[in-house]
């Protein structure tokens, strides 16, 4: 079994923001597999189950905590299923990449991303795959917080939707063909 986690922020105020790129990718991936997210009755997370030929069972998760606490729910999802860091794929936004560009890595640090920092702290490892979705750099004079949390205009929403579709393809590639193939194809 593999666990794919999309990082984002809960609530209507954060819909259509750059920081919810991870959720958008998982929503697209789940839609393609006709998987439905359901809220856990005992944990702040939405999960969906999917099966993929050649991969087996896949658990998709969208933590319902704020970004800087994204990792809190992971031990409770991973431990009972016998999963460790090598079974984890995390999808997150990246302000250091141009809008729509993808970067896949087999391991690494948080790179200044508080959601990834939380994941690393809670699972105690940097040895998990990450798919980072470029949301563009902040404009001069605008705070980073405003950049990632403000609602995007229609052009940026379209660009991010296209990037989310490519990132969903990349997630499938990681699962079916492996992270090295995915890095060569999508980076």
Gross geometry: globular
Structural class: alpha/beta
Per DSSP, the total helix count is 6
Roughly how many Å apart are the termini? 25 Å
Q: Which percent bin holds the helix content?
A: 25-40%
Work out the radius of gyration: 15 Å
Offer a quick outline of the entry.
By secondary structure, the protein is an alpha/beta fold. It has helices at 21-32, 74-81, 114-123, 144-149, 154-177, 179-186, and strands spanning 2-6, 38-39, 45-52, 56-63, 88-94, 102-105, 129-134. Helix content is 36%, strand content 21%.
Please explain how this structure is put together.
- By secondary structure, the chain is an alpha/beta fold.
- The chain is 36% helix and 21% strand.
- The chain is built from six helices and seven strands.
- It has helices at 21-32, 74-81, 114-123, 144-149, 154-177, 179-186; strands spanning 2-6, 38-39, 45-52, 56-63, 88-94, 102-105, 129-134.
- Strands 2-3-4-1-5-7-6 form a seven-stranded mixed β-sheet.
- Helix 1 packs across helix 5 and helix 5 (154-177) runs antiparallel to helix 6.
- The longest helix is centred in the C-terminal third of the chain and has 24 residues, at 154-177.
- The chain is globular.
Task: Give the arrangement of secondary structure elements.
Blueprint: E1 2-6, H1 21-32, E2 38-39, E3 45-52, E4 56-63, H2 74-81, E5 88-94, E6 102-105, H3 114-123, E7 129-134, H4 144-149, H5 154-177, H6 179-186
Parallel strand pairs: 1-4, 1-5, 5-7
Antiparallel strand pairs: 2-3, 3-4, 6-7
Helix pairs in contact: 1-5, 5-6
């Amino acid at each position: 079994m593999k666990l794919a986690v999309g990082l984002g922020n809960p609530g209507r105020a954060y819909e259509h923001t750059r920081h919810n790129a991870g959720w958008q990718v998982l929503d697209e991936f789940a839609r393609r597999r006709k998987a439905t997210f359901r809220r856990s009755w005992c944990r702040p997370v939405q999960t969906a189950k999917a099966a993929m030929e050649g991969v087996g069972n896949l658990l998709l998760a969208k933590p319902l905590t704020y970004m800087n606490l994204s990792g809190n729910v992971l031990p409770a999802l991973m431990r009972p299923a016998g999963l460790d860091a090598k079974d984890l794929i995390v999808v997150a936004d990246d302000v250091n990449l141009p809008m729509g560009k993808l970067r896949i890595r087999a391991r690494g640090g948080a790179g200044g991303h508080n959601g990834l920092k939380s994941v690393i702290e809670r699972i105690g490892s940097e040895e998990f795959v990450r798919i980072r979705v470029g949301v563009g750099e902040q404009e001069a004079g605008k705070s980073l917080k405003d950049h990632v949390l403000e609602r995007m205009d229609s052009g940026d929403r379209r660009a991010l939707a296209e990037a989310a579709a490519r990132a969903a393809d990349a997630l499938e590639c990681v699962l079916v063909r492996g992270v090295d193939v995915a890095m060569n194809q999508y980076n």
